[in-house]
Amino acid sequence: MNTNLSSQFKYFGIWPVAPTPFHDDGQVDYEGMKRVIDCIVDQKVDGVCILANFSEQFLLSDEERFKLTNLCLERINGRIKSIVTISHFATDIVYERARLAKSLGANIVMMMPPYHGALLKGNQDQIYKQFSKVSEIDIPIMIQDAPLSGIELPVPFLTKMINEIENLTCFKIESAQAASKIRQLILNCKNNLEAPFDGEESITLLADLYAGITGSMSSALLPDKIRPVIIDFLNDKKKEAGEKYNNILPLINFENRQCGFQATKIIMKEGGVINSAFCRHPIKMLDDHTKNLLLSIAKDYDLVSMNWGK
To answer: Is the pTM of this model over 0.85?
Structure first.
């Protein structure tokens, strides 16, 4: 890539979130997890994120999480870059998760501000101190600004954190009006940024690219189709990027608005990547009508995830 935009920052491209497969009895499918990683690598992505919210990290035990961290990073084996999500309310636990991720070769750790339910939320001083503590591990940190936490992270506060906390060099913005926030943060922090990213299944990707992101964290449903949009845009082929994005937007929209993280598992089961699309209770499984409509829409896109294991 030759554009000034892409050369400003260290990380770019598509970094999908890996789903965590379960057997029909609810046990973690560790062999299936290996196939998920291989399928994602085969989609020619730039990086992968594990143990995120779209990985159902909130349904995993500490032991399962430890085993999955080890398994995934060993399976990735440097073939692509990696992000390990380490979010937790307790700073000591976040710190230890970051230390483990670094010891196993992760490139970046991602964390949300500390929260636990609707009423137990870190204030700005507590958030700042938690991120500062993790920065001591000396691994790049990506701050995830997402509505799930219920914590508002205003631009001035994010600017202060990114410019003052040494290893907080990446962000993933998923809040409302993401493009406006992204644009301002890049303006305020560009000398201290390595990865300005968006997320939320890349549903705001085009606007966010115009705002200055160089990467996106989608699901693992169609990263092979999203990456060309990003690369074209960063190579100043904006018209081509827009056409490609508009073509895949119906599937992204259906995933984002109708399915959530179950979409990838349903498609990967159809594609022979995993044996089950099971989600642990209390997650409500998608109804058959929605699943069938997803499969019907997706079949027109020749997705790697839908064909990989056939």
So the answer is: yes
